[in-house]
Amino acid sequence: MLRKVITVNIGLILMIVISSCGDRSQLGSSENKSNEMENQADLVLLGGDIATVDADYGNVSAMAINDYKITAVGSDKEISEYIGEQTQVIELNGRFVMPGFIEGHGHYMSLGRSKQILDLNDVGDWSEIVRKVAVAVDKSKPGEWIFGRGWHQDKWQSVPSNAVDGVPINETLNKISPENPVILGHASGHAAFWNDAALEIAGVNDDTLDPEGGTIVRDSSGRATGLMRETAQRLIRGPRSEYDGRLTPQQIELQNRERAKLAAEESLRNGITSFHDAGASFETIDFFKKLEAEGELDVRLYVMVRGESNALMDQALPQYKMVSEGNDFLTVRSIKRQIDGALGAHGAWLLDPYLDLPETDGLVLETVEDISGTAEIGVKHGFQVNTHAIGDRANREILDLYENIWQQLDVDGKQLRWRIEHAQHIDPEDVPRFGGLGVIASIQAVHGTSDGPWIPSRLGDIRAKATSQPWRDLFNTGAILTNGTDVPVERIDPIASYYSSVTRKMINGDAFYPEHKMTRVEAIETYTINNAYAAFEENFKGTLTPGKYADFIVLSKNLLTIKDSDIPSTLIDMTYVGGELKYQR
Questions:
Q1: What is the CATH number of the domain that holds 564?
Q2: Residue 494 reports pLDDT greater than 80
Q3: Rounded Cα gap, residues 518 and 132, in angstroms
Q4: Direct distance between the N- and C-terminal alpha carbons of the chain, in angstroms, rounded to an integer
Q5: Dihedral Cα 480, 344, 487, 232, nearest 10 deg
Q6: What are the strands of the beta sheet with 330-338, ordered from one edge?
Q7: Domain annotation covers residue 573
Q8: At the N or C end, where does the chain have fewer CB atoms within 10 A?
Q9: What are 240-265's pLDDT values in tens digits?
Q10: DSSP strand E in 5-80: where?
């Protein structure tokens, strides 16, 4: 009996073991399927030439993406392991892929607005502007205002003989538009041209004094020509507010939504996946918050607070601070100030007077004292301070200001990553201070080649060569440079700005002090990882590194290897933001 029992029990044990082995085999199969699902990518790119802009990964041929992040980069063989039944696979066929361009300094809502008004960027002369305005007048009711932007007298083929300070008088505009106020913004944004109807509404007459930081340009008889420099443009703010008041709040919101949409479309079409918005009010930031909450921001925005008093910022900044987290499309942690104007409008603040207008050395738009107050508030609330400075005097003043504030408050300035926006003309003595202090030079390479033909007329060749856009010297002394277009001052075309970066070639075919050209790699870095660093976002974007945002673009040509002459014809084939296709050519 005992033996039989033992035999039966052994049989039961064998059955349990066999059964257990069978279950384990099934479990293993299930685990394998689970692992396959976990390793499966949402999107895989194969057969490309992918510049990760990360020294640890270099150039690869393939990339895997899950949700809004990059999962892996490597060879086709390595990344093929991430392909599953649900994976979308893109065969690149050798095309070039790189991180999405980051616009380092632009004006987002102004970009959208520029698509709603007269585009004067490419006009050849004054008569062409008059024709465009005449067409707009024909389509308008009497009393309606006509807006345009983008003209630049130094880029015209000719200027009327009766021009004052190189700019026409408004006589012809008055003839074609006697009842419609006409306001035409200079490409730089630092001047505007008005007809008499606009001057009258603004209350400008022979006795009106120049406002501080601005100029009402007049002819020899004392009559206003229509050119309003810098802060003189503000004289029409009151009437403009009344005019805009004809719109209901709902109409204003629809108008702003259209502007935001137009800005996003133009950005994505040009391969821009992130945008440093150089100046937005708290009201505009509230609007951006609303769009983000609705999922209606298609481009990642890094917004600088602008146009608010120091007192209000000291109170409100803590409530507005927003840093990157998750699949973020809106961050706010910087302030924009402006010490001078633009060189083209004789508003840049110089160490010595203008060659072609020796009675002035430029304009101070916001005082050193007021900007110093902003700097203290920035340190107090952990906000980056980014100051517009174009002239060599302006750059020196801001470098001094930053250094003094950091010493007074006993803070490490390099950790704050404060910026000088534009940094176009720098005295050689001040160039090493950017790297030494850790001040970021937020440049727009296309400004150098766009303005290059006429800069010597403002400064003289010797001074222009010594101070204008000294990128190579900045790099050599340890500075971090970023890149952008200052849209809508220039068109939001990073390919054009990249071309300017590596060639410094002007429209006339000459190179603008070519000793300061960037290398191909430097130029791409200024438009990607450097811009990410300048926004404290280098851990999220700027390179195609696993774990970062899947913000990338597919281009028709390889920007690292093609001939200089082929760069301008390079096209954006696809733009992805957070792993999602946002634009396809």
A1: 2.30.40.10
A2: yes
A3: 38
A4: 86
A5: 120
A6: 101-106, 272-280, 300-305, 330-338, 384-389, 419-422, 440-442, 481-482
A7: yes
A8: N
A9: 988 888 889 999 999 999 999 999 99
A10: 43-46, 49-51, 59-60, 62-66, 69-74
